[in-house]
Amino acid sequence: MGAYILRRLLFVIPTLFGIMVINFTLTQFVPGGPIEQIIAQAQGGGDVFEAISGGGSEVAESAGNDRYVGARGLPQEFIDELEREFGFDKPPVERFFTMIWNYMQFDFGESYFRKIGVFELVLEKMPVSITLGLWSTLIAYIVSIPLGIRKAVKDGTPFDTWTSGAIIIGYAIPGFLFAILLVVLFAGGSYWRIFPLRGLVSSGWEDLSLYGKIIDYFWHITLPVLASTISAFATLTLLTKNSFLDEIKKHYVMTARAKGLSESRVLYGHVFRNAMLIVIAGFPAVFIGVFFGGSLIIETIFSLDGLGRLGFEAAVARDYPVIFGTLFVFGLIGLVVGILSDLMYVFIDPRIDFERREG
């Protein structure tokens, strides 16, 4: 197993390198950039997209400096100074390998517009996204596993039919639409103002008692976590049900029943471990799916300052150090979690040997 883990860890390096190559290359062809953003603000446009799509006459007038649409009227020395400040006076290949060398030393640089290190910025925003991902995954498992087992035991009954209908509806509703529905109903949108709409904690949270802090924290995360949980809940419930149905039909279950064991003993003493292998071992992957998948929309709707919102704002502002830094961190986390998923399989069922299967 040690050799397998070592090979997987070594495979992380070329995978991360490939991710960075693709994304760095794409940014070279995307219109707009940090310099264009500053030019748009300097000329009162306020937005890089307005400078890019400002109309044919503006484009024609800027022919003297066609690399930066809308730069007409700004001194060339100012443009050159911006290029030196952001490093765009160097060839793209040199900039890319300089970035990779810095990343190997975990030096992610500094945000162009926030004047803070990217690493510090990611650490500052990560607790919000981890909160959403972790609580959503835990709640999905706590609800889905008992419900999936019950559906497997009651397969074909009215209970199974009605719950399947509810699950399908839940799976079909996009997370952002469910989030908006929660806001309209329970966050003062049109009906009740039961839960807050902004932030992870209230202002003055530090002055609350320990009990007050806990209540305030859960009060704020209730709606975002519910909105993040809905899709994972549906998937996990059906996966649990199907896993149990597959195991219940096997010969060892019939043998256990023939020996006179109670149904609960058969179900939880024999079936549970085998049926839950794929469900429990997939916990890291489900967490990452929730962590990455809905973080942007959920954080935006509920005004949570997390990694998803940070990445979106960096993309709009063309803040390349933040974009590439978050991509690197997300890619690294995703690859490490893939290894952890394999280790979970082995932990739950030691009979699995990845080294022998690879050989």
UniProtKB/TrEMBL annotation:
It is found in: Cell membrane. Keywords: Cell membrane, Membrane, Transmembrane, Transmembrane helix, Transport. InterPro entries: MetI-like, MetI-like_sf. The keyword Cell membrane applies. It is a multi-pass membrane protein. The chain crosses the membrane at residues 9-26, 128-149, 161-187, 217-240, 275-302, 322-348. SUPFAM superfamilies: MetI-like. Pfam families: BPD_transp_1 (PF00528). Residues 126-345 form the ABC transmembrane type-1 domain. Its main location: membrane. Belongs to the binding-protein-dependent transport system permease family. PANTHER family: INNER MEMBRANE ABC TRANSPORTER (PTHR30465), INNER MEMBRANE ABC TRANSPORTER PERMEASE PROTEIN YEJB (PTHR30465:SF66). NCBIfam families: PRK15133.1. This is Microcin C ABC transporter permease YejB.
